[in-house]
Predict the structure.
Amino acid sequence: MVVAWAALALGTFTAPQEDSPWLRTVLPTGAILVAHSLPEAKRTSAQLLLSARSWPESPANHGWRHLWEHLAAAGPNGDLDIRLESAGMTLRARTFRDANQFEIECAPAQLDAALDALLEILRPRAFSPAALAKELEILRHERALMSVPERLSSKAWLLAYGEEGIDTQGSEEALRGATPADMERLHSELCDQSKVTISLAGPQSAELMIQAAKSALAPIAQGKPEPPQRRQAGAPAKGFLPGVDGGVLAALTGSFDSREAAATLAAGLALAAHSPGSFFIYTPSAENSLILVGGTDSWPELLKAAEDSSPDSAARRFEAGVDLARRWVRRQLADPTSSAFLRGYLASGAFGMSPEKILGQLDRLTLADFRQGWAAFGADQRVEVRGGQP
């Protein structure tokens, strides 16, 4: 974060990428802008990401950002999604551990309108008790419909990071305690310019998209930057989750651009590929994180494979794992929605972070690095959650 905070102190700072169709910049207000040109794309993705660095999840506010996301996505007048749909645009919203995301997918010619709509979300507003009650009921249904991989992942994060690892779905007790005043305070905190990242991807030039975002943000007031709260290192752990079959193996890893993350990503994808029917979960982050591989029918095979650390097995899996990791990253960058999210999510956590950095790490990865990544899924280093009772 040294580069990011130094840039804020100096005012507008642009990081050009030579021979690359993407740009990023940080404005004097503290807002970060990212744009990726994808000439073959038919649609444009305009995304607003709001850093949660000053509002970490805790037992007392568990799920408040998720509740606020539902309320904020409706816009000040409660009709934002309807207005966008009538114009041929699509609004999506998600809450992650590190940030809240709002995306508008639109035709390239609608970029200015999409940016204006995203900025509606930032405007100061009030929230009614009736609106909270309506969204609380929706959140109850969402929690009830969590998939097995989501539930296993949630348990693994809690075991690994304690309170810092609680999910964003929320608890009934904490959500029922939320008031309109709490939502208004949270809105003010999250929508401060120092927390804002606008990330764009589409067929337009990166320069054009950056300029459009600058123009849209011009009237917004100066932000109040503050040092981020970093997630502490996690620890190996084992636990059980009643009511599900199978399980998940989670490897502790550092920030997305680290050699450690590159090695663990390659190992995790190789492990998942070795056991057909497995699932793979990883949200790239500037923070300490987890890379998870799990399954139901494939669970016994996953456990067996994870403990196979023989030199011959590592050599066989190394090239395949690195290739899978490269393709996994590049696939995220090939589509406007996933590219705008990945670039924006990383920049909101650490301005200098980019997908290109992990691709560089993968190019330099050695067999010894890969073996360390594989060992992170081993019994003495991993977080393990099994379905059923102890």
Remarks:
- The first helix runs from residue 2 to 10.
